[in-house]
Write a structure and sequence with these properties.
The protein is mostly helical. It has five helices and no strands. It is globular, with a radius of gyration of 17 Å. The protein binds fe (ii) ion (2 copies). One fe (ii) ion binds next to helix 1 and helix 2.
Length: about 160
């Protein structure tokens, strides 16, 4: 097995996000509302945690060595806001799912969400992650990986604690 690295850790999240996007696509025709709802319930916390890893841990470290080129990093953060809007839009259609007139807008919103997420993941994998691999020292990469794993444990713990209450 290849050793864990910070970008590989993020890529594993991407793989799981892409898997759920594929599932969402499969649930659109014929439209399976229950399945779409279940996928959104799994996608949302995963994306939220992944976004925190990138915005709280990964991007600030990258910004320190890329201060001459802040635009790509700002674009990543901007995309995260748009992703959130897409998720909220799909969720709002799901709350009125007994009204069939919302079926087409829901399917369209899901398709836009899938497309946007895929583009975003592609941008990070093609430009941001390779740049991190080149720019960050081994020491920093290791520190970021440990912090991301800690954040993951913390959030799993918070999730369990929430379920118990
Ligand atoms: Fe991202
Ligand atoms: Fe990402």
């Amino acid at each position: 097995m290849e050793p864990k690295t910070v970008t590989r850790h993020l890529l594993e999240d991407h793989r799981e996000i892409k898997r759920l996007l594929g599932e969402m696509e499969n649930a659109l025709e014929p439209t399976d509302l229950k399945r779409i709802g279940d996928i959104v319930d799994r996608l949302e916390p995963l994306v939220e945690l992944h976004r925190r890893k990138e915005e709280e841990i990964f991007l600030p470290a990258l910004a320190r060595c890329m201060f001459d080129h802040p635009k790509p990093l700002a674009a990543v953060t901007h995309d995260h806001g748009v992703e959130e809007t897409y998720l909220e839009e799909v969720k709002s259609f799901l709350t009125v799912m007994e009204d069939v007139s919302f079926l087409k807008p829901l399917v369209d919103a899901c398709r836009s969400l899938v497309q946007f997420f895929r583009d975003h993941l592609w941008k990070e994998e093609s430009f941001i992650f390779p740049c991190a691999e080149r720019s960050l020292s081994d020491e920093v990469k290791w520190e970021l990986l440990v912090r991301m794993e800690d954040l993951e444990k913390e959030s799993a713990h918070a999730g369990t604690a929430q379920k118990e209450t």
